[in-house]
Amino acid sequence: MNSDEIKNNILDFIKNETNYFKNTDDLKINEVSDGNINYIYRVSNDDQSMIIKFSDDHVRSNSTRKLSSLRNKIECEILKKQDELSGGLVPKIYGFSSEKKLIAMEDLSDYEVLRNAFKEKKIFPVFSKPMAKFLYDTLFKTTDLVLGSKEKKDNVALFVNYDMCEISERLVFQEPYLNLQGFNSFTKENSEFVEEKIYRNKNLHLEVAKLKHIFMTSSEAMIHGDLHAGSIFISEKGIKVFDPEFAFYGPIGYDIGNILASCLITYVIDEYENDGKESKFSNFIKQSIFEIVDGFIDLYQKNYDKDVVTTLFKNEDFKFYYLNKILEETAGYMGTEVLRRTIGVAKVLDIDRVKTQRNYHIVERKLLNMALDLILKRKEFINSKCYKELFNLERK
Ligand code: SR1
Ligand code: MG
After folding, report:
1. Cβ of 160: how many Cβ atoms within 10 Å?
2. Distance from Cα 196 to the centre of ligand 2, integer Å
């Protein structure tokens, strides 16, 4: 579909299937896409605006690379549910057309994408607290411990997202360790290290296989599925989480681990850019990691007895066991995310910015060592103290 056809479809959709605009006579439609997968448009007049997401059945950057537009419906459904659960920490939905593959949603232009704010080393007063609350509310409250058995199973069915899960299964849990497609990249100084500690490390492969198996089989909670700094808007007012097109019923630790990984990468790169010293900004990022972990634990401890409905789960020992399981998996998925963003095909802005700079291999090694610790010693990460120790590790 060419650009004019997409715009005509959008106009038709807005006029006939939504009622957000008070006046639809003079709407301007501007493409604002910045990703490879979908098309994003801002539609506005002098008084109002909205964002339209068009998810075609192929990726935006390559029309021969097919991708089910089911992700569009899933994104719309999860945003509605997350809106209720989190008390408005996601964009509002104004309309959806499965036939046209369009979602109309709230324009959050007064917020900025956290990834860009991180690039500019901005410090925000409100980040970790609402983040921890969003995680507790959207993850824990969609588990079998809180929802009725039927509602939970209906949700699992609603969020079957095979194409997007396949991408994560391959890019997160396969390629970084086996390089079957040959797209991994890293500095030559670390090639022996990667060969020995990642490609030929049988124990690592076993532990990542366990995490992959949990990712594929544990229908635990309604997860965002791609919760990095590029999926979060931020402003002085707080956060809004968006772009949950990878959502499915999966392990809680995957979402928590993803946002912690995103912060950790930003921290390590900032330290590198600041001659190996911690800056005010990186200290804010480090504290945010501890506060997200502590904030989640705190909300869990305080609300578990009130939120959990099933009698057998209302058990102090189970409450302790389940929290430890979430925290162990969080550390494991934080590790797999750091590792894949460091050597895998889908890098992040922070790394792309510095990967050809002098002595980058030292940072690359540091990220890989941290990732290995998180994966292999994940059982030890049961509170924020363990994360504090992670920052103190000095290795070659
Ligand atoms: C082909 S998509 C590559 C990566 O970008 C997304 O944000 C996900 O993280 C995915 O793994
Ligand atoms: Mg995305």
Report:
1. 12
2. 32
